[in-house]
Fold this sequence. Notes:
Elements: E1 3-7, E2 32-36, E3 51-55, H1 62-69, E4 76-81, H2 85-90, E5 93-98, E6 104-107, E7 112-115, E8 123-127, H3 132-136, E9 140-144, H4 148-155, E10 160-164, H5 181-184, E11 201-202, E12 205-206
Parallel strand pairs: 4-9
Antiparallel strand pairs: 1-2, 1-5, 2-7, 3-4, 3-10, 5-8, 6-7, 11-12
Amino acid sequence: MRLWHVSEQQGIEVFEPRLPPSPGSGISSPVVWAVDEPRLPHYLVPRECPRVAFYALPSTAAADLSRFFGAGTFRHVVAIESAWFERARSTPLWLYEMPAQLFSCVDSNAGYHVSEQVVRPLSVHRVAEPLAQFGERSVELRVVSNLWTLVEAVVGSSVAFSCIRMRNALPPGAVPHNPSVAAEVGVDADHGGHVSALGERHAGGVEEADALEA
């Protein structure tokens, strides 16, 4: 098993345990966070980018497979707002591989792992074009004008889902300044979406652990 910590910052030599900024994380002590390889694409966008990730489970109902994935070949999707597309396309990221033996799993659906120790990464990889990674990892990148319809749909479905940085999302029903971006990149902005599995409900939406990105 490979574990990763994603950052927009290069040259991090040591990761110090810290308290999660989100009270909904369920973690009350200082830790270092990492995410497993299958869920790594949830973090291949800028740190503050709101997104909805979802994927099919063995238990996902046939109706939800059709609703969220249609006839496509991918069963794993990360959706972002069109307002964030250019920033996501142009922001390089650094992937720090973490020593898996120092971590324990705290959410198997989300792929979240934590360590209470100071951690030195095994290696670091610069990703100049993170969005190119999605297809290589069999994950669909979906660009939509507004995420909230998708949030409401996945929360009530049988897919696994993760809604991240939703405090930065456009308000429900708001229209972005660049609504044509979704069409330009060949994505159906009105499609319901494909989703992945881990979320906690909070007032105003679903939010995930902030500390996974430095």
